Amino acid sequence: MHELSITQSVVDAVRERLPDTPIASIQLEIGKLSGIVADSVRFCFELVVDGTPLEGARLDIDEPGGRAHCACCDTEFELEDSILLCPCGSADVAVLAGQQLRITSVEVV
């Protein structure tokens, strides 16, 4: 379960920037193609923040879909999973979005 270490890294990053500051909420963006299970991050978050200034903070997660560009037919299209095939059938695609993991905002108390 790599989500536990990812969640710990998110909490560590927030605590490093805002040491001993009570946090009301954290907003994450986890792309659908990132391989990270958002529900697992939610579960791990409660474990990781226990006993820290982030205890009781709300975790909000946005899960934007993937986008790719096909070199064969020169179109951009949406990806719902990690099967990198263009609707035209080509596998010559470049992922443009959907693999991100980022902290988009932190709200302090």
List keywords for this structure.
2 helices, single chain, 3-stranded antiparallel sheet, 109 residues, 3-stranded mixed sheet, hypothetical protein PF0899 fold, elongated, alpha+beta
What would your notes on this structure say?
The protein is an alpha+beta fold. It has one domain: hypothetical protein PF0899 fold, CATH 3.30.2320.80. Helix content is 25%, strand content 32%. It contains two helices and six strands, in the order αβαβββββ. Helix 1 packs across helix 2. It starts with a helix and ends with a strand.
Question: Quick summary of this structure?
Answer:
The protein has 2 helices and 6 strands. With about 110 residues, the chain is an alpha+beta fold. α1 (about 1-15) packs across α2 (about 40-50).
With helices defined by DSSP (H or I, 4 residues minimum), what is the helix count?
Answer: 2
Order of helices and strands: HEHEEEEE
The average pLDDT is 93
* Largest β-sheet summary: 3 strands, mixed
Class by alpha and beta content: alpha+beta
Distance between the termini: 31 Å
Residue share in helix: 10-25%
* Strand tally: 6
**Overall 3D form:** elongated
The total number of structural domains is: 1
> What gyration radius follows from the Cα positions, in whole Å?
17 Å
Residue runs with pLDDT of under 50 for 5 or more positions: none
Write down the CATH topology.
Answer: hypothetical protein PF0899 fold
Output the CATH class name: Alpha Beta
Give the second-level CATH assignment, the architecture. Answer: 2-Layer Sandwich
Strand order in the sheet with the most strands = 2-1-6
How much of the polypeptide forms β-strand, as a percent range? 25-35%
